[in-house]
Specification:
It is built from three helices and 13 strands; from the N terminus they run αββββββββαββββαβ. By secondary structure, the protein is an alpha+beta fold. It has one domain: Porin. An eight-stranded antiparallel beta barrel has the order 1-2-3-4-5-10-11-13. A two-stranded antiparallel sheet has the order 7-8. Strand 1 and strand 2 form a beta hairpin. The longest helix is centred in the last third of the chain and has 17 residues. The chain is elongated and about 65 Å long. 34% of the residues are buried.
């Protein structure tokens, strides 16, 4: 519910700021691709040196690897909705960007079968552990700060580059098991130690690097 409320808040903010768009306004619509996935974006430029943007990004990336000594199949689910304010420099394509993102980014992991597992520094068998499932998520609303460059041809077609940082906050990790020892106190203590180790390994993701390239079109 909190995530849904955050999405609606950010999108409504963007729509409210751009709500007075008319045929005489400088309205651009475009698409982009980058570290936050594939996205759509609307831009309103009420002044030559200032614009307001609202958009959404989404993408799923599958991979496998090791976390805290356990091999996992993983899916990185990227989902963000945003509104930004952009301040442009006179006679320059350069701009500075600040905004807020509704952040649905999360990492889902499912353990691969193995004869044995090292959980929290304690060895267990496959039957004792079963399958490990983990989800890593972040704050529902994340501030963004960055800069970019906008180039356009005859005021109708634009090329946009964005570079910045999305501050996602501290990671939160869930970790469950469904083996024979799933309710055993000793195993549960080891599982909690494993969860904390995974959480520590994902600390670097609290500042998510943003890089994107987009194309936009002015329909007015």
């Amino acid at each position: 519910m909190n995530a849904l409320r955050a999405k609606l808040t950010v999108l409504l903010l963007g729509l409210a700021m751009a709500g007075s768009v008319s045929a005489a306004d400088n309205l651009w619509l475009g698409f982009k691709a980058g570290t936050l996935g594939l996205g759509l974006e609307a831009t309103w430029r009420p002044l030559p040196w200032f614009d307001i943007r609202a958009g959404a990004n989404s993408f799923d990336y599958d991979d496998d690897g090791s976390q805290a000594g356990v091999n996992y199949n993983a899916t990185l689910h990227l989902e963000t909705y945003y509104a930004t304010l952009n301040f442009r420099f006179p006679l320059s394509p350069f701009r500075v960007t600040a905004g807020a993102f509704s952040n649905g980014n999360e990492l889902q992991m499912v353990s691969m079968d193995s004869p044995s597992f090292d959980i929290g520094g304690v060895p267990f068998t496959q039957d004792e552990v079963g399958t490990l499932r983990s989800t890593t998520f972040f704050e529902d609303v994340a501030p963004y700060l960055g800069f970019g460059y906008d180039f356009n041809v005859f005021g109708k077609v634009g090329l946009n580059l964005d570079i910045g940082v999305l501050w996602q906050g501290e990671p939160s990790v869930t970790l469950t098991a469904d083996g024979l020892l799933e309710s055993d106190p000793t195993f549960m203590a080891a599982l909690e130690a494993e969860r904390l180790e995974i959480e520590a390994e994902f600390e670097d993701f609290k500042a998510f690097p943003v890089l994107s390239l987009g194309f936009s079109f002015n329909f007015f």
